[in-house]
């Protein structure tokens, strides 16, 4: 599961990516600094994992991670191959969700592709390119379906009508993500860019924190209108703070009026966007670990995240919600209280489950 970082050139995508992943991607005040995508992981802070670590005191505490892909800047005409057009769009096609980074910071030293700073216009440009690329995909598919329908019209009628509805929607400038279920399912199958779940990031100057100023206010409006989440942060500040000792960074944030790290808010929002939940495993005194899985994942598949042998040889899962385990003080105490449940193959893992998988090799 990967989240793509998308935006116009010089929006601060790589700065944000570096702050999130500490991966050291190139950042520069000119457009198209990024050409090949950078891939990295960010860790999700989870107080439940911290508490488990404090209770069990293992050698290792391993947090859940989310993968981010820093993608080349997009410009008008990308769907026709302008800028790094087709390559860029292909990279978006491969991700599961999208973060749209909208430039809300003024900086005379960092050229902006448009004459005015206008995040609403920038988002419209981005959406237009994604919609036009999707239209090309839909048109191509429509042609294929129509020619296949000549031999067997019935078998293709439904797909054709859904494709026509999608085409009309994209023509009206609507994203495929906003379509009704059947259309949306087809759009996802076709890997349409505008079908991917997304959130908006307003990248502001530090001096505009914590509220973000008028440009961020505009982005909040846009997000509310489409029902997306919005994160207001300064990529530059987050980048610098990522190098500081945690205590000092927290004090600096407080002085800026920030309640939490912008990065952590973003990672948590990304986690929700991908519809991920967390389960925990405990390996004796050695390791306590948080695992991200899609909501609805069944116990054997969750076991498979830990080790493929555990999925193949799955017998049962012994499960307790993390809060109950913490309150009991130890696995043995929780078991004595009868709080450890036995679950089988059809159990859907719940957020916060601590799981001991029983399996045969
Ligand atoms: N003032 C200010 N400058 C920023 C901020 N975020 C990024 N920048 C600067 O903007 C310039 C471009 O940043 P990048 O992170 O390379 O932008 P990008 O979106 O990855 O750009 P491309 O890869 O060219 O598409 C750099 O000089 C950054 O230091 C910010 O929050 N405030
Ligand atoms: Mg970049």
Q: What does this molecule look like?
A:
The protein has 361 residues and is of the alpha/beta class. It folds into two domains: 2-272, P-loop containing nucleotide triphosphate hydrolases (Rossmann fold); 296-359, Ubiquitin-like (UB roll) (Roll), CATH 3.10.20. The protein is 43% helix and 20% strand. The chain has 14 helices and twelve strands. The chain has helices at residues 13-21, 47-56, 85-93, 119-149, 153-171, 181-189, 213-226, 235-241, 246-256, 262-273, 299-306, 308-312, 322-328, 331-336, and strands at 2-7, 38-43, 60-62, 65-70, 97-103, 198-203, 230-233, 276-283, 287-294, 314-321, 341-343, 353-359. A six-stranded mixed beta sheet has the order 2-4-1-5-6-7, with helices on both faces. A three-stranded mixed beta sheet has the order 3-9-8, sandwiched between helices. Helix 1 (13-21) packs parallel to helix 8 (235-241) and helix 5 packs across helix 6. The radius of gyration is 23 Å and the shape is flat. It starts with a strand and ends with a strand. The structure holds guanosine-5'-triphosphate and magnesium ion. Magnesium ion is lined by residues 13-14, 33-34, 70.
């Amino acid at each position: 599961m990967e989240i793509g970082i998308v935006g116009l050139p010089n929006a601060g995508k790589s700065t944000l990516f570096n702050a999130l992943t500490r991966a050291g991607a190139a950042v520069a005040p000119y457009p198209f600094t990024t050409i090949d995508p950078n891939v990295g992981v960010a860790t999700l802070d989870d107080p439940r994992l911290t508490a488990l670590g404090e209770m069990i005191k293992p050698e290792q505490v391993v947090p859940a991670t989310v993968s981010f892909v820093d993608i080349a800047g997009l410009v008008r005409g990308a769907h026709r191959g302008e800028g790094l057009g087709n390559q860029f769009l292909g990279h978006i096609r491969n991700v599961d969700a999208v973060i749209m980074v909208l430039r809300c910071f003024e900086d005379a030293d960092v050229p902006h592709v448009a004459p005015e700073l206008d995040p609403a216009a920038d988002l419209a440009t981005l959406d237009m390119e994604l919609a036009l690329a999707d239209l090309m995909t839909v048109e191509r598919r429509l042609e294929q379906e129509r020619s296949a329908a000549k031999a067997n019209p019935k078998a293709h009628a439904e797909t054709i009508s859904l494709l026509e509805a999608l085409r009309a929607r994209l023509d009206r400038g609507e994203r495929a993500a906003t379509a009704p279920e059947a259309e949306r399912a087809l759009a996802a199958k076709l890997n349409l860019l505008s079908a991917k779940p997304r959130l908006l990031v307003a990248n502001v100057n530090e001096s505009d924190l914590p509220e973000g100023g008028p440009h961020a206010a505009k982005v909040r409006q846009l997000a509310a209108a489409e029902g997306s989440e919005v994160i207001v942060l300064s990529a530059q500040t987050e980048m610098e703070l990522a190098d500081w000792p945690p205590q000092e960074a927290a004090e600096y944030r407080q002085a800026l009026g920030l309640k939490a790290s912008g990065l952590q808010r973003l990672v948590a929002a990304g986690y929700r966007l991908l519809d991920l939940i967390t389960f925990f495993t405990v390996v004796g005194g050695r390791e306590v670990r948080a695992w991200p899985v899609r909501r609805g994942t069944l116990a054997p598949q969750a076991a498979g995240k830990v080790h493929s042998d555990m999925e193949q040889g799955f017998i049962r899962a012994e499960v307790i919600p993390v809060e109950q385990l913490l309150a009991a003080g130890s696995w043995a105490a929780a078991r004595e209280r009868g709080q450890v449940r036995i679950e089988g193959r059809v159990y859907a893992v719940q957020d916060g489950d601590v799981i001991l998988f029983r399996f045969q090799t």
